[in-house]
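Technical annex B. To support the medicinal chemistry partners, we prepared a structural model of the target in complex with pyridoxal-5'-phosphate, based solely on the information shown next.
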Amino acid sequence: MGKQSEALFQRAKEVIPGGVNSPVRAFRGVGGTPPFIEQAQGSRIFDADNLQYIDCVGSWGPMILGHGHRYVVEAVKKAATRGFSFGAPTSGEIELAEMIIQAFPSMEMVRLVNSGTEATMSALRLARAATGRSKVLKFDGGYHGHVDSLLVKAGSGGATFNVPDSAGVPKEVTALTLSVPYNNLDAVCAALAENDDVAAIIVEPVAGNMGLVPPRADFLPGLRRLADNYGALLIFDEVMTGFRVAHGGAQARYGVMPDLTCLGKVIGGGLPAAAYGGRREIMELIAPAGPVYQAGTLSGNPLAMAAGVTTLRAIGVPGVFERLEQVTTRLCEGFLQAAHAADVPLQAAAVGSMWGFFFAAEPVSDYATAKQHADTARYARFFHAMLDRGVYLAPSQFEAAFVSLAH
Ligand code: PLP
């Protein structure tokens, strides 16, 4: 790593825990020093030593147009001249909400928040209020932000009450969280049969936080059916997949309508914006319309609204998702061919403009098989070899990668 990044990392570690403001940025999964990024343009990022990289991370999903898209830059500049934050309603919030609702027919109303974590945390509170039930069912390796009750480790085998994944989360808080293997409807069925007060099933409809693991054909329709049979709400956490695997997210791609949806990443175009939404009668339980409290000083921030609305407008043009998918598929196929030619065991998959790969000889269908089959040491070597050649991949085997329109 360059001298400037090394020096900045040392300095950062003195004042910021681990030197970073989100753990994976510290490169613990692959070792070494992270480049400190100074600027970005299109598909490239540039570090403090003026080294440039093709960016396959895209800020972990938001940068679907690529970096520094001129329409977004203009929109944010214009919004900034009018004021940064008012703590009062603005028309930009309506515009973003209307664009989301138009793209996602399962949502009749949305509430805008600042991060994906806030969206999932609030959606759970709402689901509990709407059903009068307490428990929540998630999936092993599913990540929904750092919400206390969702920081639950992979359970082994069937449904189990899980232990907290993080220090500082009392076991009482996660006692209401069930976790079962992804892509396993039998486990979901068993968990729902054993627990009569499950308020909601929360799922990443395309898993992106255990590496990329697509849903089996029957998985999402099966979740819809089981949620209905057992009176639980189905929450799609589309923070990563919304406006990413298709314009209308995974629910449009797979034709399954959830009760509640969480969005983030792309809808802020790189500024902090997220949302949760669903049917009117559920959403009207939220304060001040109803009794479920949820609020935010900077929610619906005008700069974030400008970036989000402009980004959604730019990807709303016909042909955008076809092009993104073509590029992603080509990349993935080329990767598989190269690995095959080099006799390296590789599993790679692409869904829309998300893609991912495991150095594994066996297929990966859930968190347990990802952990079991993926060669993380090989990934770390590959990651650094790519970084040295100017390609910035996710600094962990268990993350998805993203293609932008600038790639
Ligand atoms: N849900 C999913 C599926 C995510 O991938 C993430 C973040 O990566 C979150 C929720 C949390 O979002 P945020 O980091 O904006 O709090």
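Notes passed to the chemistry partners:
The first strand starts at residue 37 and ends at 41.
Residues 39 and 46 are 5 Å apart (CA to CA).
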